[in-house]
Amino acid sequence: MFDIGFWEILVIALVALIVVGPERLPKLIRVTGLWIGRAQASLHAIKTDISKELRAQELKDALNKTNQTMSDMNQTIHIDERLDEVKKTDPPEEIDKKDG
């Protein structure tokens, strides 16, 4: 999480030992560990929530695209049905221009 190595941890521990003292250092380490654990858990929960929201948005987009395709197909079917109706009707009789 923090990308610190052994030597950095050793320096931090020595400074903490000097500043806090040997009596309170174990308690400080426990409290620090608890806070780091809570921060990691919160970060994990946030990442999970963001992933769920992104997935939900992707599903909504896919659903909208599918609905648009269905609408286009319904319009095409409606046009085809109208065309079939027009084909079934008798064509108007042509007026014989010779008789007129």
UniProtKB/TrEMBL annotation:
Transmembrane annotation, as ranges: 6-22
Subcellular location: Membrane
Principal subcellular localisation of the protein: membrane
Domain of life, source organism: Bacteria
Region (Disordered): 77-100
Alphabetized UniProt keyword annotations: Cell membrane, Membrane, Protein transport, Translocation, Transmembrane, Transmembrane helix, Transport
Topology versus the membrane: Single-pass membrane protein
UniProt GO molecular function: protein transmembrane transporter activity
Basic and acidic residues composition bias: residue spans: 78-100
Listed NCBIfam families: tatB
PANTHER family with a match to the protein in the record: SEC-INDEPENDENT PROTEIN TRANSLOCASE PROTEIN TATA, CHLOROPLASTIC
Name of the protein in its database record: Sec-independent protein translocase TatB
Native source organism of the sequence: Methylophaga sulfidovorans
Lineage per the UniProt record: Bacteria, Pseudomonadati, Pseudomonadota, Gammaproteobacteria, Thiotrichales
